[in-house]
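Hi R.,

Here's the chain you asked about this morning:
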Amino acid sequence: MSDTDLSKITGLLLDWQGGNRDALEELWPLVTVPLARISRNLLRQFVQGESRGGTMCTTDLVHQAFPKLVNYASGLERPWENRVEFYALAKKVMLCVLLDYQRYAVRHGNRSGEELGDDVSLEPQISELSIDDLLDLDRSMELLHEIDPIGHKVITLRFFQDYTMVEIIEEMGYTEYKLYNHLKASLGFLYSKMKSQTNAAG
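And here is the predicted structure, written out as tokens:
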């Protein structure tokens, strides 16, 4: 992507935030490839960390996350700083969607919630993502840091800083087996905490 396109993304984000709905249509083709890359990376590590079948594809995740991102971002009261902030928010929204993956499976008849059947299509669930949803993720991450600092760092590096697992192994000096165990346990913890917070709020 050229520097002109990158600059245009920031401009379109600001136009969209200012109420220009046409800017969103112009923005979409410029962010599709980066969002798909984020989706692919997050999904690969989430599914691997949860030991689940990879039945949600890159496109599924983007199509589920983007409407939520639009709904949430439209309500931001301060201007976008840059496109990096947009993609950082996209990662957080996608992780929220992935943490709801098990509940989505349960709603479609899989009581274990461990794997979606091959005949299940993940249709976009266009619903609002409130600030409370993202705050719940932030609070859950803080709790994770208290009880499992290693797991917290693995989640942070992999999902929010785009480290590969090889880079995380080099950075932290632990074995691949240990880091994947922390990844799996940490994702389970985040899912459990966010689910309990949602139930308590309901």
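One quick note: The radius of gyration is 17 Å.

Cheers,
M.
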